[in-house]
């Protein structure tokens, strides 16, 4: 049956599928098909598909044998996948258990099913989890051709940012010097190194750095990544004026590190500044902070203002791509 589908390379399939789930447009009644390394992912409302995806018409067969959690429950539950872990987010323990049981009963492949048991907390940005099925919070997540081993109990990782991370990676040229100020397990650093950049990756979380070093070897880029465990403000002295590109993905408090970013910036440097602000002025506070720290030593040029996703009813997660150019 010819239906609307997103056409995407096979290696990008899981990240794309999750993005379509987040947008509420994944068609569960038709099967995902693959033709010569290209996936065709059925969608319900093509006009609501995020604009970065290619929507085509394709002959996608109806699902006949696969049982989904919705088939078991009688309604469509909310969940996301991270490697072989299925993550749900339910405040009511009984509802969480009901959904977990339905996932286990369905044909979804999952080594563990977990429920968020706390908000992100502390300077290491981790959270508590209730493991409802299985016995591990470790997994290997695949994203745009790269693999990331991680433990969600000890590090922060969001699969929902896959498209955004890929957007940044596509801007990187071989030979660039990239400083990832809050690197985590390497979802920005490793693709940057794979694109030919020399990368310094810093994180306060010792567990994250250990995973990052392992992931650099796993993805065959360890020769291009220097991983440093510590506060980037204390590391900056060794890399002053070094960076061609800075990644500042710490949206709740990146504004506290703008002075450090300017110290790290070379004569010409692009900063990817992530922030969470009220929807009425999502970019103003961050750009004001960058200008205050960089001028008059640098010219400040705003390249892109992008809303990454909604964060709360009145707040959005945004990214401003800004070029700093040293004045003579």
Automatic annotation (TrEMBL):
Keywords recorded for this protein, A-Z: Cytoplasm, Methyltransferase, S-adenosyl-L-methionine, Transferase, tRNA processing
The SAM-dependent methyltransferase TRM5/TYW2-type domain extends over: 79-326
Q: Which PROSITE patterns match?
A: SAM_MT_TRM5_TYW2
Specify the signal sequence span.
none
Query: Recorded GO terms, molecular function?
Result: methyltransferase activity
Matches recorded under Pfam families: TRM5-TYW2_MTfase, Trm5_N, TYW2_N_2
Which InterPro entries does this one have?
MeTrfase_TRM5/TYW2 (IPR030382), SAM-dependent_MTases_sf (IPR029063), TRM5-TYW2-like_MTfase (IPR056743), TRM5/TYW2-like_N (IPR056744), Trm5a/b_N (IPR040601)
Q: Name one GO biological process term.
A: tRNA methylation
PANTHER family linked: TRNA (GUANINE(37)-N1)-METHYLTRANSFERASE (PTHR23245:SF36), TRNA METHYLTRANSFERASE (PTHR23245)
The protein's name is Class I SAM-dependent methyltransferase
Organism, as annotated: Haloferax namakaokahaiae
